[in-house]
């Protein structure tokens, strides 16, 4: 089995040097940046809005245990059921209990990264339950047998022609179908399945403590159908998605939509506070909220990494990261890619810390992620914190340690610094050119060092 770092480097190289991949991503990112620039104009004082959002999330994390209990009290008072899941395994076990109790055979899902985190779809398939993604992008990658490419836009890496060919192969549609025709076909397929489904599963963009509500943000309406047509609705939500009050949506919804897609507000913003009440015509008979920890409490307890829990999953850091824009989402081998994924993946219980620690080096530390975070998270500092943890846990390879100790020894020794340049070039060729990269020419050391030139008065 290949080591995670080796797999990452191989996938990254393949994507970074694929002209077609870069063409598609640059095209989609270009449209995104234009829309976001326009969307930001809705804020009279954008920086103040970001600081306020950061302060609200900081308050939330400081008071998270109390707010979670407040959420549970209000949600259960309306007939909802709250399940506390410490791990992915706990969440899957609870979902399995519900499925068995309801004798469910078909489940419809709206887009949810947390279900990718707990590997829900493979679990349901192994249980003999049919699960259908209802978000258009998620539907496409499910048909293709791939994980989502991006937190917000799962099929960003595919062109219209790719999708038309995929649907032609799988469903017999026209190989030159237009985007409108492809969308109409998916709508036709999904409409009937919504009414047939036994259970609808969603994530949650926000949890509201003061009303005991789950907030869903979307542009297609599929989440509303997922939560209202099946008799049972299960929302799986990370505990960090909490905000204290419904009033705070007035700042978080515009920030999420602007930084996520460039919109002033997403098309559908739904607040769900429990199952269908007496006298109501819409909604499920039963509604469950699974509050997932899976390593989040460890992040909460870590003052150096706690800020990562402020994330509202808008995808802005991905869209502004020069590394992500070159290597794409699948290279990360984590449900969370880009800068925020590189930060949280080693800490969430997705595997061992060292399985994902290399991701924090997939960054230029240019600060673009921090600059473009709607809730003002100091992302590039958190990437550095992960590197510090990696060093403190002695997770560096023996080769890397040897290179850096040799470098340090040479830099602190004037005689070694002043050895003839041909000796330095030979050593560099032997030990450094592979790490530098086969497609880059390693720079030559000059004939004289700065110290030697200084002594001769030539600088």
Oligomer: single chain
Reported CATH architecture of the domain at 63-296:
3-Layer(aba) Sandwich
- Label the overall shape: globular
Question: In terms of structural class, how would the helical and strand content be classed?
Answer: alpha/beta
Number of helices: 24
Low-pLDDT windows of residues: none
CATH superfamily assignment of the domain at 63-296?
NagB/RpiA/CoA transferase-like
According to CATH, what is the class of the domain at 63-296? Answer: Alpha Beta
Largest sheet: 6 strands, parallel
Keywords:
10 strands; Rossmann fold; alpha/beta; 459 residues; four-stranded mixed sheet; globular
Offer a quick outline of the entry:
The protein has 459 residues and is an alpha/beta fold. Among the domains are: 63-296, Rossmann fold, CATH 3.40.50.10420; 399-455, no CATH class. The protein is built from 24 helices and ten strands.
